Amino acid sequence: MTILKQADLKKQKQFKAVLIGISGAHNSFCLSLYNLKSFAYSDPIIHHNWSIEIIQEPLITELDYETRIEILIKKIMKHSDADLFGFSCYMWNMKYVNKLCDILKIQSPFSKIVLGGPEISKDWIIKGLLNNLTADYLVFGEGEKSFNEILKSIQNNESKSKINGIAFKENENWIVNAQQIPFKSLLDIPSPYISGCIDDEILIKEDIQANIETQRGCSLRCSYCIYHKDMPNIVYGGVERVLAEVDYISNKGCKRIRFVDANFTSNINYTKDIMRGLISRKIEATIFAELIPGFIDEELANLFKEFNDLWEWNYITLGVGVQSINIDALRRVKRKIAIEKFDETFELLSSRGIYAKIDIILGLPGEDILSIANTQEYMLNKLKKSKAHLLCCHTMRGLPGTDLYNLAQQFQMHFSSEREPHELIESPILPRQDMVHVLRRTAIIFRIINPGFSKSHDVRKKFYETVEKLLCSHLDVIDQLINIMLKDLPSDSWFAQDDFPYAETWWWECSAHEVSDQMIIEWLKDLTLPNNCGNLVN
Q1: Pairing relation of β-strands 315-323 and 355-362?
Q2: If pLDDT is split at 50, 70 and 90, which confidence band does 193 have?
Q3: With CB atoms counted within 10 Å of each terminal CB, which end of the chain scores lower, N or C?
């Protein structure tokens, strides 16, 4: 009898929405779309009248986008009868979302298109910076409530003017409505896992990483960041909710978990309770989470180690956002973290064998090539005794709706999305030639230092041995490698081109293919003391 009722309900659905996500990694998926679906289906009217389908696509890059876009549009057009298509917009996928929307408007002209996510900023809509987007609705801020209201507006042919958190097209102009009211708790959104909105075929994929949101918002107000935007306070989902989601994921066979929070340890007691729950359940998994230096103590570090010790396969990697050791640059962007806090955090993790992914930003306001070099040199020295820790350097991004833009004008910083999204091109104190050199240094750091780019630890070991033998800085050796690579790599390599286009894509996707371990080891063997040795601060 129950089956018949479900079948009848399915037949009665009159409207169809298709949500499309292009992930930021090859082994991940967009959690945000499932949050939209689970919240929408918690409304009986929407659940009765709407069918919501989700299409997930792994990371698309400049290397494969033409083929991948053709395949993806074929998947999407299987739902050409949809009343609405929605896209979750991030900096890594906006270029491809734009292309898909242009195609959709031609092939499915009567369908509505909704764009939401971090790339959709109310400020940018008002300034006319998003006028080129092909869409009927733009959703800014938290999207769940606004998405529900859009569905009801389409269903009932009602006015859009009272839907908070959206902009809509009227006579080719964007009409911008009031801000959406933030959730007071993540428990207001049914778990996309427990509710069954995430299909099993997603979670059983080989090496898939499942995202879990334990909180929203951030206690810091960094000028370059959007985690805190439109969020006056951090809201949490509750320990039991998090543990129930981990149980659900684990029971499906998924063993990789990412907590997608700005600062997993923002409430240290909350984090401790989560870790105790994972340990008591003897969860077998790898875990990734971000933390801000200083938001950890010995008890929490011991809990991380205890989790690692549960199973041979378990390990936790913690992203530690340092950004720079230049305290003046950090103050300018409202990130008031002393390097001593990083040192304390790094020691707590290292002494317990816990992996750290150290993040720095290339080109904060007021930084020149020497300031960036000082930070990279400091971190390379920090990692010389480690085989596991990562050093991830990210180009300064001028993200939509951040406070960075006021600073950028003051420091005459030029950003462009012509190649990599929102990347810093240059400033008066960091001219393009210097920035390209920074990018090349960073590419080599990625290739040599980070596990996963080499088949063994021999490259990393040989690099540090060479630095010690030559009695010079790490970047002195890296600069010699740059000169060798510019001569030895083919001219069509992005690395070898004058402007080093698609630099971040190269070091993530191409470096291990174009530059073998053996090549690096042979180059290092032949290095001699550089003429300009000692120009860098150690």
Answers
A1: parallel
A2: very high
A3: N
For the chain, the first-to-last Cα distance in angstroms comes to 74
Q: How far apart are CA 91 and CA 102, in angstroms?
A: 18
Q: At what angle do helices 369-382 and 474-488 cross, to 10 degrees?
A: 110
Over residues 427-445, the mean pLDDT reads 98
pLDDT band at 336 (very low <50, low <70, confident <90, very high): confident
How many CB atoms neighbour CB 484 within 10 A?
16
Contact yes or no for 479/486 (Cβ under 8 A):
no
Query: What is the phi/psi pair of residue 251, to 5°?
Result: -65, -20
**Sheet of strand 112-116: strand arrangement:** 50-57, 15-22, 84-88, 112-116, 137-139, 166-170, 173-176
Longest alpha-carbon distance in the chain: 84
Q: How far apart are CA 531 and CA 525, in angstroms?
A: 17
Neighbours of 72 (CB within 10 A): 20
Q: DSSP letters along 242-306, please?
A: HHHHHHHHHHTT--EEEE--S-TTSSHHHHHHHHHHHHHTT---EEEEEE-TT---HHHHHHHHH
Q: Are 391 and 456 in contact (CB under 8 A)?
A: no
255-285 pLDDT tens trace: 999 999 999 999 999 999 999 999 999 999 9
Higher pLDDT, 182 or 5: 182
Over residues 437-468, the pLDDT tens digits come to: 999 999 999 999 987 776 667 899 999 999 99
Q: How confident is the model at residue 252 (pLDDT cuts 50, 70, 90)?
A: very high
CA 461 remoteness from chain centre:
29
Q: Chain centroid to CA 476: how far?
A: 31
pLDDT in tens, 107-123: 999 999 999 999 999 99
Full-model pTM: 0.92
Domains of the chain, first to last:
13-176 (3.40.50.280), 186-425 (3.20.20.70), 431-538 (no CATH)
pLDDT at 385 over 60: yes
Tokens of 226: 């959007």
Distance CA 168, CA 174 (A): 5
Nearest to 115 by CA among 403, 400, 394: 400
